[in-house]
Amino acid sequence: MLRLIGNLIWFVLGGFFMGLAWWFYGLLCFISIIGIPWGRACFVIGKFMFWPFGREAVNRRMMTGRDDLGTGCLGMIGNVIWFVVAGLWLAIGHLFWALALFITILGIPFGIQHVKLAGIALFPIGKSVVLSEVADATRAARRD
Questions:
Q1: How far apart are CA 140 and CA 116, in angstroms?
Q2: Which of 1, 78, 98, 118 has its CA 20 to 30 A from that of 85?
Q3: CA 52, chain centre distance (Å)
Q4: Secondary structure of 17-65 in the HEC alphabet?
């Protein structure tokens, strides 16, 4: 129930607009053939922007225990391209919402979430969005 309330408040306090921004960049990426992998990621993360509570963006290497196309050298190159084309602008959008929310006491937790998401906006390649319980279980299994 708390996740639902958090997600509803989040949706009003910037989640809707940032989700749309991610989807806008996703559409731009789909215009070119080579941008399709970035576009797909934009739609996944855009959905995450609408309803982030109860989910986490985690490194796929941490989840699977091995490298893949997005977590290796090509992923790093993809992140550099992403940073220049869209990542910086999406991060600025998240920081704008964070600053606006930091003005109010009730908005501070949501502003902190926007700051975290600004980091994801800068370098999203190699990340997967999973349920928080899955991320916690994976971290616990890695510690053992």
A1: 22
A2: 98
A3: 9
A4: HHHHHHHHHHHHHHHCCCCHHHHHHHHHHHHHHHCCCCEEEEEHHHHHC
Token digits for 84?
């220049």
How is residue 134 written in tokens? 């899955």
Query: pLDDT digit string (tens) for 11-65?
Result: 998 899 999 999 999 999 999 888 888 888 899 999 999 998 889 888 888 877 7
Tokens representing 77? 């190159």
- 9 CB-near residues (< 8 Å, 6+ apart): 110
Record the pTM. 0.85
Residue 62 token pair: 């941490």
CA–CA separation, 55 and 72 (whole Å)? 24
Q: Record the tokens describing residue 19, joined without a space.
A: 């989700």
When divided into structural domains, the chain yields a total of 1
Q: Is the distance from CB of 9 to CB of 55 less than 8 angstroms?
A: no
Tokens of 68: 């893949």
